[in-house]
Every structure is written in structure tokens, then in C-alpha cells.
Automatic annotation (TrEMBL):
It is a multi-pass membrane protein. It is found in: Cell membrane. This is LysE family translocator. The chain crosses the membrane at residues 6-28, 40-65, 71-88, 109-133, 145-166, 186-203. InterPro entries: LeuE-type. Signal peptide: none annotated. It comes from the Bacteria. Coiled coil: none annotated. It holds the Pfam family LysE. Keywords: Cell membrane, Membrane, Transmembrane, Transmembrane helix. It comes from Salinicola lusitanus.
Length: 205
């Protein structure tokens, strides 16, 4: 991979990370409800899922998706139901314990990683991205170990930059609204984003 291709790929991954979708909406909801730090485990889980799909793409993800389409469909439905559940929790969260009810905080950092992984892994957009987009940068059939390692590093860097930008923006909005009424609106707004993210997953084929 040339320097120009590497920079272009890094920029494309960054833009992909900030493109609205279930994962972005879930991250915004967590940042609005619990702050920037609680977004980090979720972002790590999302990145882990993307790296997994990147590695699978080098071993024929298109073939896997074709023969295991029903399995991916079940994962997508489970991910959507999980987002509905998180959205409902945020809607019902009392103002005085809003942070305790945060989807990114419940269960600790490991749970946040698992949540982010499930949300990203169940998103067909992620699968299609690596099937259709990645081959435009590298020849997957001739991809060596060093080139694959570079792709992983670029993917992690681009995704982390984009997801952290989203999380920081959502957390900044949270800090600006401190009154009980504003917190209640934040909870319900974040819950609506979670439910909307689940609806997007249901709607995707």
C-alpha cells in the first residue's frame, strides 16, 4: 500500500466512523447520558468488531456472508432488540440516578465493550463496507502480513478518531445541561436515539 493509499484509507475510515448509523446513535446516547469516559469501552467494542470483519474480509467475508446470511440476520435482530431495551432503560431512568442507568456504564467496562461489539457486529453496513470498500485499496488475494498489520493500525486509528469526536461532542452537550428538566430530556433524547438505532437495524436487509 502506497502512502497516498494509506492516507486515503485512513480518511475514508474516519468518515465511515462518523457516518450516522446504529453505532453512532448508540454512542451519542451514551455520551449524552454518562459522559465521554463511558463511551470509550463501547467505542473499543465497536472497533474490535470492525477489526474482526477486516480480518474476515481477507479470508473471504463475502463467501461467509453468502452462506451464513441467516446467522447474520439473527445477530442483527438480537442487536436491534438489545438497543430497544437500552432505549427503554434510558426513558425510565430517574434523573437523580441517570448515570447509574447509563447503557455504557451498567456492568462495568467489559459490559461496555460487549455492548459496542454487539451493536457494530449486528450492523449490515459494517459487513458491506469491508466487502465492497476494502478491495478498492488492496488486493486481498496478495495481502501480506505487514500490509495487513498496517490496515489494522489504520482502521483502529481512523475509527478511534471518529468515534472519540462523536463521544466528546455528545458529552459536551451533556455538561451544558445540568438542570433536572434538562437531564430528563437528555435521558429521553438518548433513549430515543437508542430505539431509533434499533429501528435502523430492523429496517436494514
Amino acid at each position: 500500500m502506497s502512502l497516498e493509499s494509506a492516507v486515503t484509507y485512513l480518511l475514508a475510515i474516519f468518515l465511515f466512523a462518523i457516518t450516522p448509523g446504529p453505532g453512532v446513535f448508540a454512542l451519542i446516547a451514551t455520551g449524552m447520558n454518562a459522559g465521554f469516559r463511558r463511551c470509550l469501552p463501547m467505542a473499543a467494542g465497536m472497533i474490535l468488531s470492525d477489526v474482526l470483519y477486516l480480518l474476515l474480509a481477507t479470508f473471504g467475508l463475502a463467501t461467509i456472508a453468502e452462506h451464513w446470511g441467516e446467522v447474520f440476520g439473527v445477530i442483527r435482530i438480537l442487536g436491534a432488540l438489545y438497543l430497544f431495551y437500552l432505549g427503554w432503560k434510558l426513558w425510565k431512568a430517574p434523573v437523580q440516578s441517570a448515570e447509574v442507568a447509563s447503557p455504557g456504564q451498567s456492568g462495568g467496562n467489559l459490559a461496555g465493550v460487549a455492548q459496542g461489539f454487539l451493536i457494530s457486529a449486528s450492523n449490515p453496513k459494517v459487513i458491506l463496507f469491508y466487502i465492497a470498500f476494502l478491495p478498492t485499496f488492496v488486493d486481498l488475494e496478495r495481502l501480506g502480513g505487514s500490509a495487513l498489520a498496517l490496515l489494522v493500525v489504520l482502521t483502529v486509528a481512523g475509527l478511534m478518531a471518529g468515534l472519540c469526536l462523536i463521544a466528546a461532542s455528545a458529552a459536551r452537550a451533556r455538561r451544558a445541561l445540568r438542570s433536572p428538566r434538562a437531564q430528563r430530556r437528555l435521558n429521553r433524547g438518548a433513549g430515543s436515539l437508542m430505539i431509533g438505532a434499533g429501528a435502523l437495524l430492523i429496517a436494514k436487509s
